[in-house]
């Protein structure tokens, strides 16, 4: 799984990802930088990693399920996620673009 800072304006992105069993810690990504982590999926399709994101001027912490077996298992041979101000875009192997975009799961102001 690769998480990429896709924010404009030379902004740093603070990322904190975890699952039920693993806390990957807090990372700070500069413009265009990425954070890679590897994990094994569960046989029962229950693997879930969620991340929180914050940057200067973001208005608070934004949350997103960065990997969810229920939706990503068959479509995630090599998972890449691009973080934008409005949400997260998933890379699609078929189109070779970040063209599946989703707004933030919930907002905490």
Automatic annotation (TrEMBL):
Record GO cellular component, one term: extracellular region
Primary localisation category: secreted
Provide one Gene Ontology biological process annotation. Answer: rejection of self pollen
Similarity remark: Belongs to the plant self-incompatibility (S1) protein family.
A Pfam match: Self-incomp_S1
Q: Which organism is it from?
A: Linum tenue
Q: Which terms are listed as keywords in the entry?
A: Secreted, Self-incompatibility, Signal
Top-level taxon = Eukaryota
Q: Which InterPro entries match?
A: Self-incomp_S1
Name this polypeptide is given: S-protein homolog
Which cellular compartments is it found in?
Secreted
């Amino acid at each position: 799984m690769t998480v990429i800072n896709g924010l404009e304006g030379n902004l740093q992105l603070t990322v904190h990802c975890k699952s039920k069993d693993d806390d990957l810690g807090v990372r700070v990504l500069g413009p265009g930088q990425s954070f890679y982590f590897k994990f094994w999926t569960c046989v029962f399709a229950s693997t879930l990693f969620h991340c929180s994101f914050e940057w200067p001027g973001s208005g608070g912490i934004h949350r997103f399920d960065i990997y969810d077996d229920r939706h990503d298992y068959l479509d995630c041979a090599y998972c890449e996620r691009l973080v934008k101000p409005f949400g997260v875009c998933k890379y699609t192997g078929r189109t070779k673009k970040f063209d599946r975009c989703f707004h933030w799961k919930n907002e905490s102001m």
